[in-house]
Every structure is written in C-alpha cells, then in structure tokens.
Write a structure and sequence with these properties.
Structural class: mainly alpha
Strand content: under 5%
Shape: rod-shaped
Largest sheet: none
Distance between the termini: 32 Å
Oligomer: single chain
Length: 64
C-alpha cells in the first residue's frame, strides 16, 4: 500500500492535470427537442445550419 501511494504521488507530481476532473456535457434534451421540432425543421436551410452551429458551439464550450 505504501508503494502504491508513492507511485500515485509521483504520477501527480509529473502531471498535476490528472488531479483536476473535467465533465463535458454530451447532450442536452432541451436543445435536442428544439432542433428536432417541426418549427425549426421548416426553417430555411441557412438558418437551420446557423442554429445547429450555435448548438454545437454551446455543447463544445460547456464544461463542469
């Protein structure tokens, strides 16, 4: 057990980023429903792509 503790300490000293966790949102049901709604399906293709791009930007930038 003592050797295990030493190994863990050495690994954390080498790469302290392993100690910090990062949670990423993979899906959000509200936006999924918004994108698949009939009102948004009826948008012009450019407007629909703009909305999907905003959704992807939101999902890529949201972390806990």
């Amino acid at each position: 057990m003592n050797l295990f503790s030493v190994v863990v300490c050495i690994v954390l000293l080498i790469n302290p980023a392993l100690l910090r966790g990062r949670w990423e949102i993979v899906s959000f049901s509200g936006y999924d429903k918004l994108i698949s709604s009939t009102r948004n399906q009826a948008l012009e293709p450019d407007e629909y792509l703009k909305m999907v791009d905003n959704y992807n930007l939101y999902m890529d930038s949201t972390y806990y």
